[in-house]
């Protein structure tokens, strides 16, 4: 008998089956590139000061030596890279090549919700005005300000059903569910969402980033949406905001790439709830064997981008700390996976929520630049909440 006849074929999974198999405590990540479902923890990735890439590479090497087949590091990193992290080497990983096409369960129509804005709308608008003062003085060029909603249901929220509804609503999104339980949590905590924004992906020597900045709500009326897209394409405020983000992403990737392709201007892409200015940046790595050039290494170098932080970053971070009443946690961080060969995908954790028993905590942010209007930024964050609110069966409560 030949050696090849003794090799067992790799199991073939369907993306819809992996989604259906998701249970709280598993790790789910899907994108147009494929779906990953992981269970168990072979090792946790521990790194101080935000230095995740090197620690991840060491954990992957150790897992391979221990006999873990095709190990990956997967999980989430918070907005503050030196704080919240949830990166692990899973014990079991299953993959499928295509995003899930599923019939999602309807939202529980009988659920009763209590919704608390954090902060109140008037306080958020005042924070935007204070940010505009900083921009007017020349201290900042852009800062992203977020506000939150805390929803409490009359029964525990079933994360698998919520995840399925998110995937069904936008199969092209970067959908995820990650266990981020922290000490003191009264029940398991899950970071779940459907992000439209790719932070970075790597396949071999090829890297792709797709920053989004500059947005308009989607109305559902074709004529009105055409008008909104046209205005977005011509908006000096939104184009300037987008240019800050795209330039920073290109500058960072340029440190690692021998070749970089940056389009001369953005396109407009749509999600079920929003229109976004989008620039797809591609490059070829100078040294794919460098651990700093792994998908996680590149993501770590990029994070946080001006799309979720601001320009210049140190001043924007200080303004966010001062003006936002609560820490973001994993919102506006990154979520994804990296393999032993350095390939992987990382998305920005927007359109996301943290679910713990009966409580759902979600955030939405808007980029504040010269010319921003507090009422318009408030409305933009309200539109961005709709992705999760629709999946929860709660409409018009932002």
UniProtKB/TrEMBL annotation:
It holds the Pfam family Chorismate_bind. It comes from the Bacteria. Keywords: Isomerase. Its EC number is 5.4.4.2. Transmembrane segments: none annotated. Residues 122-384 form the Chorismate-utilising enzyme C-terminal domain. GO terms for molecular function: isochorismate synthase activity. The keyword Isomerase applies. One of its GO terms (biological process) is salicylic acid biosynthetic process. It catalyses: chorismate = isochorismate. The keyword Isomerase applies. Belongs to the isochorismate synthase family. This is isochorismate synthase. It comes from Streptomyces uncialis. The lineage of its organism: Bacteria, Bacillati, Actinomycetota, Actinomycetes, Kitasatosporales.
